[in-house]
Specification:
Blueprint lengths: L1 H17 L5 E9 L7 E9 L6 E9 L2 H5 L9 E7 L4 E4 H4 L3 E7 L5 E10 L4 E10 L7 E7 L17 E4 L2 E4 L5
Parallel strand pairs: 5-11
Antiparallel strand pairs: 1-2, 2-3, 3-4, 6-7, 7-8, 8-9, 10-11
Length: 183
């Protein structure tokens, strides 16, 4: 019985570390040939920012292959890049919900101790989102990081006459912003 519980716990832990990160795999490029298991590679994934409707982020990261990956014991390198783009005619968000930095993506990069993360930061004065990707470990993370910035003024400006906005919303470039409550 204890052995069965241990195996179930290990299986669920392996599943939690391995994937299910809510992304769409776009493609990959092989970097190192491995006789056993998958090749080392760079994978590209896409995911929508959960609180900014109309923005999709693309992340590329190094993935270690080989026999260790087959048994989910590999540790991926801390090399990653992120780029976020407008993927809808308009972008909508609530400033109160995104005012503080937020983790919008997290993926296990080793058996237990290392994760790859994307953080979103918002600059309300300029209506700009900054996205930073980095990896961390329980003991020590990596200073390697990559960043992308996305402005509400990047896309085609919305025509106020053609877009319906609520009284608490404003148009800034291609964004419809629900303003944070005034104190």
């Amino acid at each position: 019985m204890k052995k069965t519980i241990g195996i179930l716990a290990l299986s669920s832990l392996l599943g939690a570390c391995g994937g299910g990160d809510g992304t769409d795999k776009i493609g990959e490029a092989s970097t190192v040939f491995n006789m056993l298991g998958k090749n080392d590679r760079i994978e590209i994934h896409a995911f929508d920012d959960p609180q900014i409707k109309g923005v999709t982020c693309y992340i590329s990261y190094a993935k270690k292959g080989g026999l260790k990956e087959t048994v989910n014991l590999e540790e991926d390198a801390s090399d990653a890049s992120v780029s976020c783009v407008q993927t809808a005619p308009q972008i909508t968000f609530n400033e109160a919900e995104i005012a503080k930095p937020q983790k919008i993506f997290k993926k296990g990069s080793s058996f237990i101790f290392k994760t790859l993360q994307v953080m979103r930061y918002y600059d309300p004065a300029r209506k700009v989102f900054s996205y930073m990707v980095y990896s961390d470990k329980v003991i020590q993370g990596s200073p390697k990081n990559s960043m992308d910035a996305f402005s509400c003024y990047t896309g085609a400006p919305l025509d106020a006459a053609k877009v319906s906005v609520q009284p608490n919303q404003q148009i800034h470039g291609s964004c419809i912003v629900t303003a944070a409550a005034q104190r």
